[in-house]
Amino acid sequence: MNLRENKRADRVVSRRTGEPWRWALFGAGGQVAAVVMPALVIVFGLLIPFAGRGDDKLAYERFSSLLANPVVALLVFGGLGVVLWHCCHRIYHALHDLQIEPPKWVRTAIYAVAVLVPLAGWVLTALG
Amino acid sequence: MSGCEGCNCGSRPDAAESRPLGTKRVTVFRYRPCSAVEQGSTEPRGGEPWYDAFEVPYDTGTSVADALGWIKDNRDATLAFRVSCRMGICGSCGLMVNGKPHLACETFLRDLPDEVTIAPLANLDVERDLIVDKEPFLAALTEVKPWLMSAANADGFDTALSENNRQTPAQMLDYQQFAQCINCLLCYAACPQVGFNRPFLGPAAITVAMRYSRDSRDHGTAQRLPALDAESGVWPCTFVGACSTVCPKGVDPAAAVQLAKLVAAKARATGLIKRKEKR
Lengths: 128, 279
What we know:
- The complex is a heterodimer of chains A (128) and B (279).
- Chain A has 128 residues and is mainly α.
- Chain A has five helices and no strands.
């Protein structure tokens, strides 16, 4: 087989991977971090406490009691979870960019952080 | 006679004559594969690359392509490079100028430092001197089926003019930017993933796939998906974005690759739903 044929054979790698799912969550996390979070920070971090919009004295109590609802907590930790997934996915691909090819368990561990941390947060909030 | 007939270029004092600005030291990458050096040949050496330096005179209009032509005409006729249209549309003359991918015809000696190093496009195999092997790219391009496919005749061209092939300006804008690609492969030279991962489809091939899949007249996305949603398809891209930085035509290949990822991920999700419905 000459070099050219060999390269053509290289090109036809049609194996599908789980990457679309990982990338879709990564994209969702990016949207939450870039679009949703800045809006939440402006409203709840700046406008309510500093611009006198809304009743800031009761804001903390109201929101912390809202978080006691497991469904609300699931949404909050789900939102934070996809952002963490975004970070973990980027870290894993940055390893590839740095030409570090870690063993498979490292990838599992990196993505496990993104799944287990928000899960633990939600369980602790729901129990507490 | 001054100037051309019907044109006023002769009336401008500096238009016809070029103003010499001096010389620059142009160092050129040279390479002969072992197989090209025959017994008793006068070719200097084979198999190992080397560099040759030339003092090249230049004026305000001397491009890197002109400089290479001057070297070939006046100093070393064995220098091999590709140049065709000299106006940034054919995509033949891509090479590395001082380590960055450029079109030779659009890069001028006047804008470069006194020492200029010219090398073949990075990440691609060199055939001879500045000439790279474009075959792997052409194979990738063929794989994404770069033509309009009609719903009826998904494998071939649809040349029939029909009402369905009319397009609004907005529909044209969906793909027009990606249609500006000239296949010069500067994006392949800039993309670190092309260097790391040889079977990667690459920025230009994915851009061309999106040029057709975003066209309202095309129905071929399903046919392109096996190539795009493969391990070697769109997924090796980690959004470094260097492809868009170096593109000489203002195409945004990085955006095309992200759009292709979205198309592939959506198709995977709808495929899952359809499979469940069948059960």
